[in-house]
Amino acid sequence: MTNKRKTANVKEASSTAAKIPSKPLIQLSEEEQWRLINESGVLHEVTAAEHAPSSEGIKQRKEEDSPLAEEIFDAVVLIIPFTFLLVMMEILIHQQYGKVATLKILADKLISGVPILSVFIFYTTRYKSHRTMQFTFFVIANVVGPRMVYLLSRGSWLVNMKQCPPLATIWVYTIFQLDLGPAVLNLTFVVAYVWWKELKFK
C-alpha cells in the first residue's frame, strides 16, 4: 500500500509540474525583440531573396536573347562565303573579257554590294523555312537564272561585267536556301530555257 501511495504522489507531483508553465530565462519586451531582429538582418535577407531573380527566370531570359544571337551568327556564316563568291565572280568576268579587276574596282563592288547582300541574307535566313520564303526563293531563282545565262550567251561585255557577278551570287544563294525539290526544278527550268532559246556559250 505504501508503494502505491508513493507512486501516486510521484505521478501527481509530475503532473502538477507539467501543468505549471516554465518561465523564460530572459524576458524581453516586444520593442527589444524587434530591435534584435532588425539588427540581425534576417528580414532584409528574406525580402532580398523574394525580389532576387530566380535561376529559371535567368535561363528564360537567356533563351529569349539567344535566338537573335544565333540568327546573327547564321547570317555571318553565310555572308562571308557569298561575299567571297561575289568577288570571285567579279574577277572571273573581268578575266573572261581580258580585263584586270583592280583593287579599286573590287573595293567599289564590295562597298556597294556587301551591305545589301548582308541585309538580304540576314532576313531571308531568318524565314527560310517558311513556305512563303521558299516560294520567293523559287521565283527569284527562276528569274535570275535564265537572265544570267541569257546575258552570258548574248549580252554585251559591258552589261555582263556589271550584272553577271551579282546575278550569279544571288542565283547560287537562292539555290542553296531552297529545298531539294524546288532547287532541282529550278535547275531543270534553266536547262530547258537554254535549250528553248538555243543559247550557246563561247
What does this entry look like structurally?
This is DUF7719 domain-containing protein. InterPro entries: DUF7719. Keywords: Membrane, Transmembrane, Transmembrane helix. The chain has a domain of 135 residues. The chain starts with a helix and ends in a 5-residue tail after the last helix. It is 83% helix and 0% strand. It is elongated, with a radius of gyration of 40 Å. Helix 4 packs across helix 5, helix 4 packs antiparallel against helix 7 and helix 6 packs parallel to helix 8. It is built from eight helices and no strands. The chain is mainly alpha-helical.
Number of DSSP-assigned strands: 0
Unreliable residue stretches: 17-21
What's the end-to-end separation, in Å?
A: 134 Å
Mean pLDDT score? 82
Protein name: DUF7719 domain-containing protein
Pfam families: DUF7719
InterPro entries: DUF7719
Keywords: Membrane, Transmembrane, Transmembrane helix
List the helices and strands and how they pair.
Layout: H1 2-19, H2 30-40, H3 42-51, H4 55-96, H5 103-126, H6 131-154, H7 157-177, H8 180-197
Helix pairs in contact: 4-5, 4-7, 6-7, 6-8
List keywords for this structure.
202 residues, mainly alpha
Q: What is the compact description of this entry?
A:
Residues 133-200 form the DUF7719 domain. The chain has 202 residues and is mainly α. Helices cover 83% and strands 0% of the residues.
